[in-house]
From TrEMBL:
It holds the Pfam family Cupin_2. It comes from Paenibacillus odorifer. CDD domains: cupin_KdgF (cd02238). Gene3D superfamilies: Jelly Rolls (2.60.120.10). Residues 29-88 form the Cupin type-2 domain. This is Cupin. PANTHER family: H2HPP ISOMERASE. Transmembrane segments: none annotated.
Length: 106
């Protein structure tokens, strides 16, 4: 059983919903409270994040990048990365390839 279309807590102040998953591509919406962190981690998947609203500071392999509404950022496979919401009610649209089986079958 998958959690497709179900909102679930991620880290403190962060919730996510897997919107769709195909054979090799997955899309997920993630909502953040101001100051909430997406903890630093890495995975073998290629990722793109599009800022739906608000603004974020991404940390990718030790480099900081600010992303605001309407901007996107690419995260290479295996890159150590994390993110912090700089504004209240910020949201990202994350896309992964291949799909994140580790998130889909929780």
């Amino acid at each position: 059983m998958s959690n497709l279309g179900v909102w679930e807590p991620a880290e403190p102040g962060v919730k996510r919903c897997i919107l769709n998953a195909a054979a090799s591509l997955m899309m997920m919406e993630v909502h953040f409270e101001k100051g909430a962190d997406g903890y630093e981690h890495s995975h073998p998947h290629e990722q793109m994040s599009y800022c739906l609203r608000g603004s974020f500071e991404f940390r990718i392999d030790g480099e900081k990048h600010k992303v605001t509404a309407g901007q996107s950022i690419a995260i290479p496979p295996e890159a150590r990365h994390g993110v912090t919401a700089l504004e209240a009610d910020s949201a990202l649209l994350d896309v992964f390839t291949p799909i994140r089986e580790d998130l889909l079958k929780r």
